[in-house]
Amino acid sequence: MSFPQFAFNNIRRNARSYVAFFLSSAFMVMVFFAYAVFMFHPDVTSIELGRNSAAGMKIASYIVFIFAFFFVLYSISAFLKSRNLEFGILTILGARPGQINKLIFMENMLIGLFSIVTGMAGGLLLSKMFLLLSTKMIGISDLPFYWPVKAILVTAAAFLALFIVISAFTLLFIRKNRVLELLKGTSKPKKEPKTSLLLSVLCIALLAAGYWAIRQPLDPKWLLVAAVTGIAGTYFFYTQLSVLTIRLLKLSRRRLWRGTNLLWVSEMAYKLKDNARMLFLVTVVTSLACMASSFLLSLSNANEGAYMSSPFALNYTAYHSTNEKEDIQMIRGRLQVEGLKFTENKVDLLRGSVRDGGKSQMLEILPLSRYNELTPQMGSEIEAALRGSEAVLVISGQLDNEKYVKDNRLTITDIPDRTFTVRKTYTPVIPPFGQYASPLLVVGDDTFNLLSKTSEERNQSAHFTRYLYKIPAWDGQLPAADSRNVALSSELVDSINERNKQSGNWDSMMDARSRNYIGTKQGMSMLGFIGIFIALIFSVSSASFLYFRLHSELAADQRMYRALSKIGLSPGEMSGSATRQIALLFYIPILVAWVQTLVVIRPVLNQIQVYEITVPVLMTIGAFLAVQTLYFAVVRSRYVHSLKRTMV
């Protein structure tokens, strides 16, 4: 038997151990290859949205490759540790260190080559479906199938280099081990898991610090603090706090000495300690996937809510524009040609600003009477009269209410400087005058006239005009990307933007509700499409980690349950004990990820005025829970079946 045949037979005989790792690696190769097929498609560069999507998929492919590197490194190193006894026997039989290194390198490369070939073969078979699905979800024209030579070369070269580097690097894991240590393999007696009360308290403190940091005003430094403390706290949760919790459970003899509780509770202390790093890694990966998915789903729902709640289909704003009359005639003419019934609302406003330190926030000022005239079309009426410096503030995510409004008082620093008493603060889903409009300050008519007169006397250009178009035919339903609603809105916006670009004078602008909705939807769809495959990789890899850890402990568990069966442990009791242990390993990371997702997502989205997050989070975690339950059922069935075969 030749040396390559010996390496191949080793892989074949350990197929049960390697199958999860092989399938996970092949799946990563397939996803990377699918992204490459899209990125290198010759027709993608001719579409603006296609170029943006290709850029997004390039970033996603980097994420997949980096994650694949650490996944393969962790998996191979764990496999080598489980084969210490085999390496020790080979050493006694005369194998030189160089031969063992060659054997390990050859085995890793064989698995890597099989993964690359299998992944690219699967990618080729599914490439047409991937192109079709990606164009439908992102909202671009269909891309024809092509022979992806460049994608094949890039994928093969990238993952071949990955397996070569890792195969060479992992040789360091066994080089320093002595023969006696290798012969002991994984059968060395385990010491009772120890825990530190100080580190357990530190775990609680780190998690509390992360919770505090994430609730601070949205800022990269606080997000970084929350991430660092949260990840560190999660690590100590598995290495210290969870083991301490098991030890506390063992103090209650009344519960511990009931049924098989003593067996599975005692075993869980060892399993949690032994698998702490793996559970920590699975939790972090699952949390990131859940947070990203919940964030995108919440924004998508908010985008739909913004469209349905926005009262006006078109919003034209003129800042002393010389083309104002011409633009309005064009808009009216196009709507009339389309046969659309519409209501045009001309609104005169003032621009003001509020300051906090060196920062300034623009406000729009509107008289109460004009606001109430528009309420049948845009919202609830402000019934109470506003006198003197009284005002109502209609805020949005663009204004930090607590920062600029102090003790119900808001100060405008121009046209002229004046302090208003805010009687009421109203927070709609989006501002009444469009998704990107500034916050609105509603004041009394006399106050508005006084501010307007003062502005004119100071020659300040605070006046501007909005033309708001209510189009009933476009209300009540979400538009499709190819609908006439979107097409006409885009034509009007592009026409005015092109004119401003040519003249270099941006004294007017136009905002369209449907254009904003479709643009945001396409962006969310692109990120969601990319995120689905990354989340799938994380999920499959997490299951692979758990499967391997259980399989590496199978021999020890078989010896234990066989011994216990001789003194009366029934197959049903064995199955119940093993099932509880496997369930905890599978579902603890999901539970922790769910809690972390709620803690992080709620304050972050609330600060950008997205409040409906419960349903998206439940949907996301429900999807991960369903997939994890499928993995659990398969692994549990195989694991318990293997244990039953050893019982007497």
UniProtKB/TrEMBL annotation:
Membrane-related topology note: Multi-pass membrane protein
Keywords recorded for this protein, A-Z: Cell membrane, Membrane, Transmembrane, Transmembrane helix, Transport
Domain ABC3 transporter permease C-terminal: 59-176
InterPro entries recorded: ABC-4_Integral_Memb_Prot (IPR052536), ABC3_permease_C (IPR003838), ABC_permease_BceB-typ (IPR027022)
Segments crossing the lipid bilayer: 18-39, 59-80, 110-131, 151-174, 195-214, 226-249, 278-299, 526-550, 582-601, 613-635
Top-level taxon in the UniProt lineage: Bacteria
Keyword Kinase included in the entry's annotation: no
UniProt GO BP: transmembrane transport
Subcellular location: Cell membrane
GO CC annotation terms, alphabetical: plasma membrane
Family from the record: Belongs to the ABC-4 integral membrane protein family.
Protein name (Swiss-Prot/TrEMBL): ABC transporter permease
Origin organism lineage: Bacteria, Bacillati, Bacillota, Bacilli, Bacillales
